[in-house]
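Troubleshooting log. The previous structure file for this entry was overwritten by mistake, so regenerating from the original sequence record. Sequence copied from the archived sheet and checked twice against the printout by T.R.
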Amino acid sequence: MTTSTPHGGETYFSIDIEADGPIPGPYSMSSIGVAVAGRRNAEGAFEDLRNQDLGLHLQLKPISSDYIPEAAAVAGLDRDELIRDGLAPKDAMRTLVDWISEQAGNDRPVMAAYPLSYDWMWVYWYLMRYAGTSPFGHSSAIDIKTLFATKSNRMIRKVGKRSMPKKLLSKRPHTHHALDDAWEQADLLVNLLHWDPSI
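Regenerated output below.
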């Protein structure tokens, strides 16, 4: 069951996951990084929260013996170490729910990702399966790629980070460490929210 508490504003959580395959269930989420990007109050004013360095990084035990070595290698995580030391998915998702709820306070949490479709699929599936609830409900999310496409009046298939003005991009490196990449996405999200393409 998803949460449906009324909220005053919205808090934006940039989320990146690493996985050892294309879909959850047959394959496993290896790690998740969450960075608090900012909040919008009930009147619509946006507050940048990146300077508070509020982030969470979790590494998870695999849920299946199936994995694609090339996918698992992207994040540089050792599968044997995850089996031994990773969090049980139930504990990880409970930690995630509690942490997001604490950071959001009375705001509605909003998940942001680039692209949203991939990371949302994993996060929502894991939340519902292992925590039984989602702090994002079933649809409280924003796709950073679509946000750029809309603001720049481009087709989705013509959107890539290389097609974006450099001033929108993060100065942080893309490392495939889930928390590093969540912070990189947070920079892009905040820059896009402030961006006026006509200027």
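The longest strand covers residues 29-40. Archived copy saved in two places this time.
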